[in-house]
Amino acid sequence: MASFVERVVGAARLDAKVYEEVEADTTAMSQAMAVVAAAAAASGVGSFGSGAVTAVGVMVAGFVGWFVWALLTWLIGTKVLPEPGTSADLGQLLRTIGFSAAPGILNVLGIIPVVGFIVALVAALWQLAAMVVAVRQALDYRSTGRAVLVCFIGWVVYVAISIGVALVMGLGSVVLG
């Protein structure tokens, strides 16, 4: 079994074997939470130039987003778009998607003017690629295309929920400009 650091590096390298290992390791939930916490903290530090309240909000959103994203992915991937061999529980998605947050640790560089925006964009795309691998492995898909579709549908639903919550909380001007 790989060490925690080896798993984080392997997840960032999009190593399918690492995602399979994390999926099967029911004791890896605390490790997945640590990866999400590190990425959320890095995003919080990277956004600190926008203020401490924003930084804390970014960190809290990281954890809430992780859970909601995993739940949506599990529902869509196992109930709406399963393949014949698809078998997964929510814990497997939480663990693999938690590790797919590994590239988000780079967001700590968001505090650097100009460079920070570029790093944030690269980290976001890298995290998306990692999530596709995580979903493909956790849901036992043969098709990467199906994993991409599940991630895309989940993202659309997640964004809609986020906008809805922001509007209910009176943050519509922040979300909608």
Shape: globular
* Helix/strand structural class: mainly alpha
- What are the segments in which pLDDT stays under 50 over at least 5 consecutive residues? 172-177
Mean pLDDT across the residues is: 87
* Portion in strands: under 5%
Give the % helix.
over 70%
**Element order: H for helix, E for strand:** HHHHHHHH
Roughly how many Å apart are the termini?
A: 47 Å
In DSSP terms (H or I, runs of 4 or more residues), the helix count works out at 8
Note the main sheet: none
Describe what you observe in this structure:
The chain has 177 residues and is mainly α. Helices cover 73% and strands 0% of the residues. Helix 3 packs across helix 4. The radius of gyration is 16 Å and the shape is globular. The protein starts with a helix and ends with a helix.
Which key phrases capture this entry?
8 helices; single chain; 177 residues
Secondary-structure blueprint of this entry?
Elements: H1 4-12, H2 16-24, H3 29-46, H4 52-80, H5 90-99, H6 115-138, H7 144-168, H8 172-176
Helix pairs in contact: 2-5, 2-6, 3-4, 3-5, 4-5, 4-7, 5-6, 6-7
Summarize the structure.
With 177 residues, the chain is mainly α. The protein contains eight helices and no strands.
